[in-house]
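Quick start: read one record
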Amino acid sequence: MSEKRTGRSLAIFYDAAYPFMYGGGQRRLYEVGRYMVRHGWTVHWYVLKTWDGPSTQVRDGIVYFGLKGHTQFYGRNGKRTLKEALAYGFAVLTAKADFGSYDLVWCAQWPIFHIIALMARLVPWRSTMLVDWWEVWGRYWLKYSPWLGLGGWFIEVSLTQALARSGHLVVDSMLGRDRLTALGIPAESVTFIGNGVDVPSLTAGDPATGTSDLVYFGRLKDHKNVDHIIQAVAILKSRHSQILRLDLIGDGPERENLERLAHDLGVADQIVFHGRVEDDQATALLKRSKAFVHPSTQQCGGSVNLLEANACGLPVVCYRHPMGIDPAQLVEGETGIMVSPVEPQSLAAGISIMLQLVETDHVREHCIAHAQSSDWTAIAEQYRMLVEHLLCQ
């Protein structure tokens, strides 16, 4: 594979790449990567080939090298498959490229095995290495699975300790930084850079036709607790005679169960399952609503969807949970509210309060202003400054 470069060079490693696959992680890497291109860097992305046509592609100055390997990312349960993770790790391990010759090697945390492959190739000791560690599970690994959890905990502790000594770690929430330091990682080896959104494109455009009270945008998976939203809508209908309209945007393994639940609770006529839609349509649907409900309890701090909702003028209702959204991502009572315990009754109460606030205060203006500081240009510049600092050490 060709590696023609000019100026400083950056190699990105993540198994999925934007714009060939959509997702918050790959969008972050893409936005920062093309920003670095505009600042004179050569940027190469080593990724599993998920597109038709030549293995080498160029988008916005980023050169994508498609590696061969298993590309079925998700199993029937909606979780990433081990086979795909191992395939990407093996592809990185055996790729005919000198990764250590780049000025900077930048990795996303998942699916882990590619980081081990790069360490086996001694890349962190021959190049400056930066790793985005988005989810810090810590002792939660042991609750996740008594047996596999112990292995996950050991890998997380071992890898982060090694990377802190040989490279640098980036987290997308202050909660993540605190969890890494709790694992014994020196604070000077960790930098917080929040999630980003394309604020200009999100604020432009009109709402979709019709109206909605609530909206959810994301994968329909069990830990997202979308069933709690449906139950909350039913609670508000039966106890307070509030007939709320809900837009559910996204798809996933829980869709059939959620549709059945809505029917059983008698609120199916209040809910629209839109499935997966294009970005512009999703933005328009967000804008026609009043509040975004985000009840995930496996967010590990950061949330791109939360910022996208804020940029569309929507406040957020979410759970206060150790593995959920970082409270620092919200301005309580202005851009959102957090509720506890994790149960539909709490969510229903929070939704009712937020809908009242939206009617009486300048919540939408606060949300958009809050999102402005997370525009991709600002986030990418933070990365560029960090990288320049690391390379000068």
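The chain has a mean pLDDT of 93.
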